[in-house]
């Protein structure tokens, strides 16, 4: 006897199901935005050219949520010291442009740099020293820290000024990355966030009926009363 080898066709979709697409209900996770980093640049006005060159070489970072502040950003009519103190208090990184004029300036060295180092001692600020002109920084407390450009060699000793400032920008960029990692880690460990409360399972609360109310319901049911009277 011959055995039929004809395959059974798959059932065709119903008319109402034709053209339907399976749509996923899961929403793609939003990319985490990098924390904004604020840099305070401390410099002598006699080194304005060095400050402007640093601003130019930090341009790629300024497009990546990095704000570079210096005293020319103060609005006309605003008081200098309160504005500077506010920006220094809100900064993540303090960049000091060392030069003979900077070390000679009471405001730069004895006020701004001193305030920055006090905040650094409390782990509230990163301080980066940048040698822009030959000066006696080795006779100051800055000698105990790693300076930019590499090994504290002022730009005059490099093959070009741009090569020196590229090295400075790379060094500041490394500090920016470190600060961002620290800020991201601190934000992830912050308690009381919405995600943490959403993941916490809720414990169901069971209501225990009052004994008096339960007996009252039993006694007021006429069907159950008749059933008891018939059995007795």
What does this structure look like?
With 232 residues, this protein is α/β, with parallel strands linked by helices. The protein has 9 helices and 4 strands. It is globular and about 90 Å long. The C terminus is likely disordered.
Task: Summarize it.
Helix content is 43%, strand content 9%.
Could you give the topology of this structure?
Blueprint: E1 37-42, H1 48-57, H2 59-62, E2 66-69, H3 80-90, E3 93-98, H4 100-104, H5 106-121, E4 126-131, H6 161-188, H7 194-199, H8 211-219, H9 222-231
Helix pairs in contact: 3-5
Cα shape = globular
Number of H- or I-type helical stretches: 9
Q: Describe the strand arrangement of the main beta sheet, using strand numbers.
A: 2-1-3-4
Largest sheet: 4 strands, parallel
The helix fraction, in percent, is 40-55%
Number of strands: 4
Low-confidence stretches: 190-201, 222-232
Strand content: 5-15%
Alpha-beta classification? alpha/beta
Keywords summarizing the entry:
43% helix, single chain, 232 residues, 9 helices, disordered C terminus, alpha/beta
């Amino acid at each position: 006897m011959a055995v039929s080898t004809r395959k059974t066709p798959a059932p065709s979709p119903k008319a109402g199901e034709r053209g339907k697409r399976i749509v996923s209900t899961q929403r793609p996770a939003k990319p985490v935005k990098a924390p904004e980093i604020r840099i305070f640049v401390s410099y002598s006005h006699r080194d304005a050219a060095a400050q402007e060159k640093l601003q130019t070489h930090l341009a790629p970072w300024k497009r990546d949520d990095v704000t570079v502040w210096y005293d020319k950003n103060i609005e006309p009519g605003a008081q200098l010291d309160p504005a500077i103190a506010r920006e220094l208090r809100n900064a993540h990184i303090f960049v000091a442009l060392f030069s003979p004029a900077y070390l000679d300036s009471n405001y730069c060295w004895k006020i701004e740099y001193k305030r920055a180092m006090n905040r650094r001692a409390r782990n509230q600020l990163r301080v980066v020293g940048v040698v822009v002109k030959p000066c006696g920084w080795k006779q100051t407390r800055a000698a105990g820290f790693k300076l930019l450009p590499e090994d504290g060699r002022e730009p005059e000793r490099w093959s070009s000024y741009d090569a020196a400032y590229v090295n400075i920008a790379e060094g500041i960029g490394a500090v920016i990355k470190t600060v961002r990692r620290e800020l991201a880690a601190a934000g992830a460990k912050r308690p009381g966030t919405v995600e943490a409360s959403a993941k916490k399972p809720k414990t169901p609360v069971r209501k225990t009926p009052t004994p008096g109310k339960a007996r009252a319901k039993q006694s007021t049911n006429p069907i159950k009363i008749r059933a008891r009277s018939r059995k007795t």
